[in-house]
Amino acid sequence: MTHVPHELHEEFPNAAEALHALKMANAHFKTLAERYEAINHQVFRIESELDAASDDVLEKLKKERLQLKDDIAGMIREHGHTDA
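User: That's the sequence. What structure does it adopt?
Assistant: Structure tokens below.
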């Protein structure tokens, strides 16, 4: 199985401008995005077998990534972008 990272710009391809604007203007959004990117990187490395982790740890990271993605999507929608 090929493991592909879930980068924010790929998850929200029609919201590139909103992602950039929110990262620049909203410290909370920037923190969420940075946390998402860090967890996403960890998940990718574990799934690619570059790093070792238990199934429980991987599942916890995936759940946190999903929650962050949901939070980010909500903020993009609040910013006025409907494709989030």
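Residues 8-78 form one domain.
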